[in-house]
Amino acid sequence: MDINCSYPFTPIEFKGRVILRPLLQCTLEYQGNSLTTALLLDSGADISMLTQEVARDGLKIDLDKLEPAGDTGGIGGDISVAMVDVGVSFAMGPRYVHRCTIPFQIPLGENKGPCYSLLGRDPFFYEFRVSFRMGYTDDPRVGKFNLHKESVKRSADRFKKPVTYG
Amino acid sequence: MAKEVQGASEDQRWLVTQNLSRYTGKWIAVAHKTIVASGISLKEVLEEARAKGAEPFCIQVPEGYITA
Fold first, then answer.
1. How far apart are CA B65 and CA B51, in angstroms?
2. Would you call A75 exposed, middle or buried from its count of C-beta atoms within 10 A (0-12, 13-18, 19+)?
3. Is A11's Cβ below 8 Å from some Cβ in B?
4. Second CATH level (architecture) for the domain A4-10+21-149
5. Which residue among A33, A70, A137, B21 is the one 20 to 30 A from A162 at the CA level?
6. pLDDT exceeds cutoff 80 at A143
7. Taking 90 as the threshold, does the pLDDT of residue A8 lie above it?
8. pLDDT, tens digit, for every residue of A36-70?
9. Chain A, 41-100: which have a CB under 8 Å from a chain B CB?
10. In chain A, which residue's Cα lies nearest the Cα of B28?
11. Greatest Cα-to-Cα distance within chain B, rounded to the nearest angstrom
C-alpha cells in the first residue's frame, strides 16, 4: 500500500528563535500496558530509545529487572542500556494505523538518557521515507514532516555493495 | 506517487496550535482537544486523566533549550 502522510512539527520558541521538532504521536504497548505519547523522529540516532519515565511509569517496565545489553554513546557520553521490544502504532490518516514492533534501548541506573523518547533510524527508516520540510511555507513555524511508506523494495543486484565492518 | 494525506490525529493537530507556556517542564494529558490533566510526573498525569475516564495522549512540554 502506497501511503504518504504529513504531520505538523511541534514548534518551540527559545531565545527568540523557533525550533521545530518532529514529534510523532505513537501508542506504545508492552505486556498489556499501553501509553500514547510523542516520540522524536531522530535521524541521528542509530536505534530507538525510551526515557526511563516512559518505560517505568507508562509501560510498567520494572527497570530493576532489566539486564544490561551494553553501552550506547551520545552527546552526553556513554550510558548503560537494556533492550526491550515494544509494540508501536501510529495513525497514517483517518483510516489506517501502522503497527510494528521496535527494539528500544532503555537507560539503566542513574542515567536519565534523552529528554524525549526517540525513534531512531533502525528499523523505522527502513520502513519509511522520512522528509523534514521545515521550509514548506514562508512562516518558520509552519512546516511539516512526511512519512512515505517504502512499499516497493528494489533489487539490490545492480548496486555496488558497501563493506560493513565493526 | 501516493496522494498526501494528513497523518496526525486531531488532538496532535490541535495541540500544536496551543500556547503551552504555562505547562513548560510539565507533562500534559490531552483527550478530545482538551488538556485533561497536567503535572510534574507522567505517573500522576496518567492517573488523573484515567480517573476522569480518558485514555490520553501524554506529552512533556519542553523547557526552552536546544537539543544536540
1. 33
2. exposed
3. yes
4. Beta Barrel (2.40)
5. A70
6. yes
7. yes
8. 999 999 999 999 999 999 999 999 999 999 999 98
9. 53-54, 57-58, 75, 90-94
10. A37
11. 45
B62·A12 Cβ contact <8 A: yes
Q: What's the predicted TM-score (pTM) here?
A: 0.92
Domain ranges of chain B: 10-60
All cell numbers assigned to B9:
490525529
Structure confidence by residue, pLDDT tens digits, A129-141? 999 999 999 998 8
Cα dist. A27→A78, A81, B15, B16 in Å? 28, 22, 17, 18
At residue B11, the pLDDT reads 94
- In this prediction the ipTM stands at 0.93
Question: DSSP E strands: which ranges in chain A?
Answer: 4-8, 10-14, 17-21, 23-30, 33-41, 48-49, 70-74, 77-91, 97-107, 117-119, 128-133, 144-149
